[in-house]
Write a structure and sequence with these properties.
The protein contains 7 helices and 7 strands. It has about 220 residues and is α/β, with parallel strands linked by helices.
Length: about 220
């Protein structure tokens, strides 16, 4: 039938690129949506840690660009090494990071999520895309990259306090189906950090069912 049928064809009405690829700009739009979600918690993150004491911050993860944007505006002495894949960095540099922030943010293209050369690391909503074993390995590698007096600041969405929160339930199902992860409890994230050889120095609520952990290498 000309024009397709929305019930019979889930992709009806969606223009595809060559060989079934998404239309141009779809990936950028998805990345922008991910970063937009981080705006809800960026203020809480800025107030939950002493960023003024940090000279160079290494940052990575989903929404890290938005959080970094807020941090460099509030803390003029802060310099950041923001690590991600090239396609992600293109979106961050061209659409999300504000012009006044760019001179103090070094965009580092790499496959590994943990940037080097920083005494403090920020991982933002990275674990929610990782099953437990992958999450532990990522945290272990982050711990190994820290100097003896360094700190890992971990920001993650956790299970909703309201069991009837439909949006949180759907998000959990999507993460479980796509990545085998799902939203974790505060205790579950803490246990992953401890398995990776990290000690919890602080854990704070930064709003919107997100928590911020300050982790240091175990003695």
């Amino acid at each position: 039938m000309a024009g397709g049928n929305a019930r019979g064809d889930p992709g009806a009405g969606v223009r595809r690129g060559r060989r079934g690829q998404p239309p141009p700009g779809a990936a950028a739009s998805a990345r922008t949506a991910i970063e937009d979600e981080a705006r809800w918690v960026s203020t809480g993150v800025a107030g939950a840690y002493d960023w003024s004491a940090v000279d160079v911050l290494g940052a990575s993860g989903n929404g890290a660009g938005t959080v970094v944007n807020a941090l460099v505006k509030e803390f003029p002495g802060l310099r950041v090494r923001l690590a991600a894949l090239p396609s992600v960095l293109n979106v961050l540099g061209e659409q999300l990071l504000e012009p006044e922030a760019l001179p103090r943010v070094e965009l580092v293209a790499q496959t590994h999520p943990v940037p080097s050369g920083a005494g403090t690391l920020l991982l933002c909503r990275l674990l929610e895309w990782l099953p437990d074993e992958d999450a532990v390995l990522t945290l272990t590698e982050a711990a190994a990259a820290l100097p003896a007096d360094g700190a890992l600041v971990l920001v993650e969405q956790v299970e909703a306090a309201d069991p009837d929160d439909i949006d949180a339930a759907l998000h959990h199902l999507r993460l479980t189906a796509a990545f085998g992860s799902g939203l974790r409890s505060v205790e579950d994230v803490t246990a992953l950090a401890e398995r990776a050889g990290l000690a919890v120095r602080d854990c704070r609520d930064v709003g919107w069912d997100h928590r911020l952990w300050v982790l240091t290498p175990s003695a």
